[in-house]
Specification:
Layout (H helix, E strand, L loop, with lengths): L1 H20 L6 E3 L6 E3 H17 L4 E4 H5 L11 E9 L1 H6 L5 E8 L2 E9 L4 E6 L3 E4 L2 E2 L12 E4 L5 H15 L5 E3 L4 H9 L5 E4 L4 H13 L3 E4 L12 E4 L4 H7 L1
Parallel strand pairs: 3-4, 10-11, 10-12
Antiparallel strand pairs: 1-2, 4-5, 5-6, 6-7, 7-8, 8-9, 12-14, 13-14
Helix pairs in contact: 1-2, 6-7
Bound molecules: D-MYO-inositol-1-phosphate and calcium ion.
The site of calcium ion has 6 residues, from strand 4.
Length: 259
């Protein structure tokens, strides 16, 4: 219980800090390419999350997007408890003053996801799940949608920063799916897309080339809401999975065959 509570409190505290900083003069820096941006708020948010986790669980490992960018590596296989953290998932929305950025905090124990929290400070929606105990939006239990055909499905994807490989792949996939499903959304945060699948707001989400900090928390929440998450090739999700296909389960095979 303490594990979940620390994740919930930390996500909300960090999200509120991030929201307060939106619109202020933030310094924008390119990471791997002009399509991959970071601000000092991403870095401060990760430091805040690290300090809260370190205070509560000094022996735990933390793998965070901005720490990895600065060269802090963690061995996922050798660690007992590893926190998987994206301090701002949807940095581009944050920079542009758009809604749809989240704090994503997952926790794995010996390679298995056990806690996931995704907080959207723009809507004050707190999505969370615990292994074997269900998924929730604030106090309300989440359940994936029951739609079973693509014609009635709203699906989402992302626009990866790796434009030559993964973004090109996504454009091709939208071309194939766009004429079949009800609608396609690109909201700008993989974690938000995942929890929207869990909440039944989307039937499915896919995106190649993601990192574990984008997907860990949201994946557990989808699974605990009765949905399915696999790699792009249809293999079971594990901590080495990069791109994902997430769905309400009923559409998974059909979607996979088109992608
Ligand atoms: C990005 C978001 C976006 C996705 C990109 C990610 P970031 O994460 O999740 O939706 O399309 O692939 O990199 O950079 O905002 O943490
Ligand atoms: Ca991020």
């Amino acid at each position: 219980m303490k594990l979940l509570q620390v994740a919930l409190d930390t996500a909300v505290e960090t999200g509120k800090m991030i929201k307060e900083r939106q619109g202020s003069a933030v310094k924008i820096v390119e990471k791997s390419s002009p399509y991959d941006l970071v601000t000092e708020v991403d870095q401060e948010a990760e430091m805040l999350i690290r300090s809260r986790i370190n205070q509560a669980f000094p022996e735990h490992q933390i793998l965070g997007e901005e720490g990895v960018y600065q060269g802090q590596e963690v061995s996922l296989e050798d660690s007992e408890y590893v926190w998987l953290v994206d301090p701002i998932d949807g940095t581009n929305n944050f920079i542009k003053g758009l809604p749809g950025y989240t704090v994503s905090i997952g926790l794995a124990c010996r390679g298995e996801l056990i806690v996931g929290v995704v907080y959207d400070p723009t809507t004050n929606e707190l999505f969370w799940g615990e292994k074997g105990k269900g998924a929730y939006l604030n106090e309300n239990r989440l359940q994936v949608s029951s739609v079973s055909n693509l014609t009635e499905s709203t699906v989402a994807t992302g626009f990866p920063s790796d434009i030559h490989q993964h973004r090109a792949q996504v454009m091709n996939q939208i071309q194939k799916l766009g004429g079949i499903c009800l609608n396609v959304r690109v909201l700008g945060s993989a974690a938000l897309h995942l929890v929207y699948v869990a909440a039944g707001r989307l039937e499915a989400f896919w995106e190649p080339g993601l990192n574990i900090w984008d997907t860990a928390a949201g994946t557990l929440i989808v699974q605990e809401a009765g949905g399915m998450v696999t790699s792009m090739q249809g293999e079971a999700f594990d901590l080495s999975t990069r791109g994902v296909v997430a769905s309400n389960g009923r559409l998974h095979e059909r979607l996979g065959s088109i992608l």
